[in-house]
Amino acid sequence: MTAITTETDVPRTVESARSAGKFLFIAAIVLICAWVLVPIYLLLVNTLSSPSEVSGFPKTGIPSFDFGSIQFFLSFAGVLKALWNSLLVAVLTMILSIGIGAPAGYALSRFEFPGKEIFRMLVIMTRAFPLPLLALPLAVFFIRTGLDDTALGLAIVHTVLAIPFAVLITFSLFSGIPIELEEAAWTLGCNRLQAFRKVVLPLVLPGIAASAVFAFTISWNEVFAAAVLTIENRTLPAFLVQSLNVSPLHLKFAGGAAMVIPALIFIFAVRKYLFAMWGIANR
Amino acid sequence: MSPKALPYLLLLPATVFLLVFFVYPFAQIAILAFSSESGPTLRHVQTMASHWKFGSALGWTVLLAAVVVPIQLAVALSMASIVTKLKSGRNTVLYIFSIPLGLSDLAAGIVWLAIFEQSGFLNSMLVGLGVVERPILFLSYQNVWVIFLAVVLAEVWRATAIVMVILVSGMGLIPKEYYEAAEVFGASPWKRFLKVTLPMLRPSLQSALILRTLAAFEVFAVVVTLGGSTLPVLMGETFQWQFALQDRNVASAYALVILGISIAATLFFLRVLRVPKGATI
Amino acid sequence: MKKTFAVLGTAAIALTLSAHAVSAQVLFWSTQAAPIEETQKMREQVLAGFEGGVDFQPQEVGPFITRLEAELQAGSGSIGIVGALHGDLSTYADNWVDLSGVDLAGINVSPAFLELGKLGTDEQLYLPWMQANYVMAANKQALEYLPEGADINALTYDQLVAWAKTLAEETGSPKFGFPAGPQGLKHRFFQGFLLPSYAGSTVTKFASAEAEAGWTMFKDLWQYTNPASTNYAFMQEPLLTGDVWVAFDHIARLADAFNQQPENFVAFPAPAGPMGRGFMPVLAGIAVPKGAPDMDASLALVKYMMQPETQVATLLATSFYPVTDAPLPADLPESARAIGPAITAMTAAEDALPALLPVGLGDLGGQFNQVYTDTFERIILGGQPIPDVLEQQAATLRDLMVQANAPCWLPDAASEGPCPVD
């Protein structure tokens, strides 16, 4: 907010039109950042407040740094193992969804072939049908095949959720790369695979990383299938979040924060890939 | 290997995977909507369609998507444009913009409930500033439009980042030369956005819109947290029939309705934003 | 990046394969004690003493049903013992082991509850586990607004309406609260409190003029009810925030208010109507699925749950009372000390009118509850005319009773064949 006031104090110069535009630009950035950050801040405030402050009125909006609620979660037996399981399932989901989805995205963007529309609809349908209904036949299937209660089994279900993202996003990335680039590589003696590896892949790798991040967050936040399909190998949401609905208010917030913070750390850790996305245009 | 076989080979892993882990269980469920002890029936579909909540659940679901998705598209386009234009501090800004990616809908519901509830942050602020004398009850069943607004805000807050990231990665692929050429011809920034960015962004726009709309049709956790049963949505009714009423046939019929409107929306976007095979220079 | 993925992938797959060790713990699959603090106490204070270990997993109803059904369909699974409410357990009556062989020497289980556990058969399909009730709770500030001559321990519904009206007018906003949210237990109020108190019946006189009078009273009361009630699941929260001063709810969902601020709240019996003081207990039971992986361990855990020490520990963890004659300790938590006398005052009142839990509905229990919830939503929230709604919902109720072939249960008079709906 202070940034805006200092900005308006600057006396108008001959370039006032340009600086007004710049001011609008900065104001928009500040506004959107506040829009994103303020609710997160309020979540943290309630997480770091005592139970009576969380239910009290009026609220100050300033945390009292009461760590009771968050400590309750950290002291939960098995929370570290659940965190590890969540990571494991999410990474497996990333690998599976990109490994299976990216080739399909490439095929959709580069070829015209009979059955293309059917395949596209199949992919869309996976996203459009409620998972909680699919969970029952899947659980029966998994119990019979031994996939029940394994990280791989849950990752497979999460991959079903993530594949539409992987296919559609890689499709749009490949579509954005002129086919002439590849054709030029072919005329220079590359075969199809070489052309792909040397020309296309470096261009889309950042975008692929972004859709891998999606796969990760989808898996990370999924509760229902995780609660049904894991017993010994519970993931963090199945472990913490699914009973939050019926828990006291202060624990709802602490549980919400306990889920958000690792995800924020993850996005921070992979920001390099996320941020490389627009790199191509500026090379 | 014949080049004709190549696309099929590339699709093979995804197809096999989806057949085993999606189509097989899906078929088992979908068939429930039309089956009874005495053979095929439309009874469950009738039960659903004649239930007094069906119409409003369908209406609210479609309305929510119709309001939320365009707002998200506009906000995400501005966010993406800002990010691509920024020279300094770009990493920090993009990181902040993408934070909601990591949020579950449950967490989003909790945060916005903390803002809007009777003893929440918004009321604390209003009372503190002396705007109102006593806390206002925003999320009451009598103010269904306020609940609707709160759900729209929460959804825009939670799920715009995903559209933004898709658009940013699409904008990154637009060759810089196009903008330079447009600038040479004296096109204003707004013109450049309309004439270069938007058309070139079509593949990403299409993917983002499809993915976001499908997710919007399945909205549930945020609505329940903020509005209880005041704002019925299709996904909530599906849950209700599946688990509370334990009538899996009617639940399956509801799920097929969600599937149906999703396919309709997808076909619409595929047609409106048709993408040519490989962009041409 | 590729390399990182490859390394992570290999590690992940190796771990996946090694993680499938068999555990000897009994998996306790439960819908009860789901609030996260109760879960923690169940694990640490109630089940830690069981030899061999227990993996206590409370679930929301969706995952609970899905996993249970999957295991029943697959014919094998991990669930060793199921803990749920009477209604949930009666849905899967065919799948429970007969527990009449469990050695309960020296333990006196309530005979009425044991009978409910038979689910209308000759076998003991579940054993009663713990019980609860519904009471009223009020912020002490509300007491000065009580109508003249009203005794809080012998309140009538008319007095409650008058009280709520005064509160709304004097404080400027409605202060009565009711758990009408999606997770709230509103249907129990209509089935076990409102209709018995007014019509002396839950099913047979569903659409009678007496029932209509009951709904008219409730519609009156609703004018002075905090409209946020349609979001409430647990009344302890709005009581603690002060949004609500007087509320009706399940004792486990009020307990936190008494435990956090014992000096600010009082508990008292549900009000009485023209036919008496209707009330309905809550009964949770434990059952063993036929496909339990280790039957001996499951049966041993059932026996363990019935021991006096376990029953008392369960009360401390969940605010649910024992179903046996286990002696209660002197140092009960504030909530039990406040709520216990209110329950006694209600169940032992001269005009007490106990309603039993539905028997014989099988998997139609959810639709039975929905009849009452729909009636509420249509009359109170939708403002539809009471006689029309009652007539239409009575038709649904009649179909359900015929379909389930369920005879009447208290307070309705016994019936030959399905319980009639007049």
**What's the overall geometry of chain A?**
flat
* N to C succession of SSEs of chain A: HHHHHHHHHHHHHH
Order of strands, widest sheet of chain B: 1-2
For CATH, the homologous superfamily of one domain in chain B is named as MetI-like
Name the quaternary structure. Answer: heterotrimer
Q: Which spans of chain B of ≥5 residues are poorly predicted at pLDDT below 50? A: none
End-to-end C-alpha gap of chain A: 34 Å
Number of helices of chain B: 13
- The portion of residues forming beta strands of chain A comes to under 5%
Helix content of chain B: over 70%
Q: How widely separated are the two ends of chain B?
A: 30 Å
From the helix content, strand content and strand pairing of chain B, which structural class follows? Answer: mainly alpha
The Rg value of chain B, from CA coordinates, equals 23 Å
Q: What is the chain-wise order of helices and strands of chain B? A: HEEHHHHHHHHHHHH
- Work out the strand percent of chain B: under 5%
- Report the total helices of chain A: 14
Average pLDDT score of chain B? 88
User: Which chain pair has the greatest contact?
Assistant: A-B, 108 and 103 residues
How can the largest sheet of chain A be summarized?
Answer: none
